[in-house]
């Protein structure tokens, strides 16, 4: 119907819309608002979380090599290290009786536990040309880490002896206390990376292997020596190596040197400062003080970075363990830590290292 208003100008007006039309208009308005809001939101980034590619490892699922090498998210600026690089080498010049020679310290090291730049680092740290010696290296003038021509002064700083101790007509280290300092520096490495790197080193040294061993060779070695879900012969050797030196009289462990900390941009600097402090307390010369971090960065950190990049370029695979072996090794590490009674120097430090090692198997 159409209603005519007598007071109007004569134009005809429509009646109010029905309830159905009002509902339809509201529905269309709501739909328009929804479409507009959706378009506006779609202008924001569509991906707020990067989905890993098929062969990409998520940060939370790191492999064993990434756990071994830990660096800060953004490397520090080391350019200032180029300014001051003292390199004064002390010489054995003083004459005197043999008993005035400063004896070296034992450095028992599980295979592949020391960084590649350790020898050059120690030489520059102390200023001694033959600071780092190997126990089994022998010549006409060198025997059991002692230079037979030295009459007085410093006869090296550390004497590296690998596991296991090989007698070969040599007296046991405990019987050579008169020729060595009483402090022991013990280098160790997480079995997670120690065992595959030990296998690789043996292949290179004794079988002239070029590049990384085949995955099948690692698996064969792993299953034979790392063991199964109930027993690991290789872990027992690793554990006995540590306990033998921890308990050896008349020495005491002055410092544990975990391989993983040498290449860590934070822990590495802390480690070498403590290391230098131990050497200084034992009477060895220290050439670096304020710029010790630079010495570490040049001789240890940078070579470690280059080595890691080289392995990445070569496409080396990451040696793996079975689930049962991981559970066993993690359990054995926790058990080892619980067995330490804190009665000997360094026990708390060793327990902390073992606990962290066990967590790396997760």
Question: How would you explain this protein's 3D organization?
Answer:
This protein is of the alpha/beta class. The chain has helices at 19-41, 64-68, 118-126, 191-207, 215-226, 233-246, 259-262, 267-281, 292-314, 323-339, 347-359; strands spanning 101-102, 105-109, 132-134, 142-143, 146-147, 153-154, 158-162, 183-188, 252-258. The protein has eleven helices and nine strands. Helix 3 runs antiparallel to helix 9, helix 8 crosses helix 9 and helix 10 packs antiparallel against helix 11. Residues 1-15, 39-62 and 91-98 have low confidence and may be disordered.
Strand order of the largest sheet: 3-7-2-8-9
Task: Quote the distance from N terminus to C terminus.
Answer: 81 Å
Measured by DSSP, the beta-strand proportion falls in 5-15%
What is the number of strand segments? 9
Let me know the largest β-sheet.
5 strands, parallel
> If helices are DSSP runs of H or I spanning 4 or more residues, what is the number of helices?
11
Q: Which descriptor suits the 3D outline?
A: globular
Strand/helix succession: HHEEHEEEEEEHHHEHHHHH
Low-confidence stretches: 1-15, 39-62, 91-98
Summarize the structure.
42% of the residues lie in helices and 9% in strands. With 362 residues, the chain is of the alpha/beta class. The longest helix is centred in the N-terminal third of the chain and has 23 residues.
Keywords summarizing the entry:
single chain; 362 residues; alpha/beta; disordered N terminus
List the helices and strands and how they pair.
Blueprint: H1 19-41, H2 64-68, E1 101-102, E2 105-109, H3 118-126, E3 132-134, E4 142-143, E5 146-147, E6 153-154, E7 158-162, E8 183-188, H4 191-207, H5 215-226, H6 233-246, E9 252-258, H7 259-262, H8 267-281, H9 292-314, H10 323-339, H11 347-359
Parallel strand pairs: 1-6, 2-7, 2-8, 3-7, 8-9
Antiparallel strand pairs: 4-5
């Amino acid at each position: 119907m159409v209603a005519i208003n007598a007071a109007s100008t004569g134009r005809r007006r429509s009646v109010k819309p029905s309830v159905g039309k009002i509902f339809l208009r509201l529905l269309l308005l709501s739909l328009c608002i929804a479409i507009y809001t959706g378009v506006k939101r779609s202008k924001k980034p569509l991906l707020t979380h990067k989905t890993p590619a098929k062969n990409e490892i998520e940060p939370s699922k790191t492999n064993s090599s990434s756990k071994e090498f830990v660096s800060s998210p953004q490397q520090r600026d080391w350019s200032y290290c180029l300014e001051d690089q003292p390199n004064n080498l002390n010489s054995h010049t003083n004459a005197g009786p043999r008993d005035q020679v400063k004896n070296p310290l034992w450095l028992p090291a599980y295979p592949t536990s020391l960084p590649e730049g350790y020898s050059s680092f120690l030489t520059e740290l102390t200023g001694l040309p033959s600071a780092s010696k190997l126990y089994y290296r022998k010549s006409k003038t060198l025997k059991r880490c002692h230079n037979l021509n030295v009459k007085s002064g410093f006869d090296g700083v550390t004497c590296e002896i690998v596991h296991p101790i090989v007698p070969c007509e040599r007296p046991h280290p405990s019987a050579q206390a008169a020729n060595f300092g009483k402090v022991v520096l013990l280098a160790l490495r997480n079995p997670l990376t120690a065992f595959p790197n030990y296998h690789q080193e043996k292949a290179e040294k004794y079988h002239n292997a070029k590049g990384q061993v085949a995955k099948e060779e690692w698996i064969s070695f792993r299953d034979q020596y790392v063991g199964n879900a109930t027993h690991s012969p290789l872990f027992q050797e690793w554990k006995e190596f540590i306990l033998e030196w921890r308990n050896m009289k008349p020495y005491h462990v002055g410092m544990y040197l975990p391989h993983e900390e040498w290449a860590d941009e934070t822990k590495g600097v802390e480690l070498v400062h403590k290391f230098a402090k131990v050497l200084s307390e034992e009477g060895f010369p220290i050439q670096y003080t304020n710029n010790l971090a630079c010495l570490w960065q040049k001789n240890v950190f940078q070579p470690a970075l280059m080595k890691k990049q080289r392995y990445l370029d070569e496409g080396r695979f990451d040696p793996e363990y079975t689930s049962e072996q991981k559970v066993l090794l993690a359990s054995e590490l926790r058990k080892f830590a619980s067995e330490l009674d804190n009665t000997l120097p360094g026990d708390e430090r060793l327990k902390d290292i073992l606990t962290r090692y066990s967590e790396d198997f997760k």
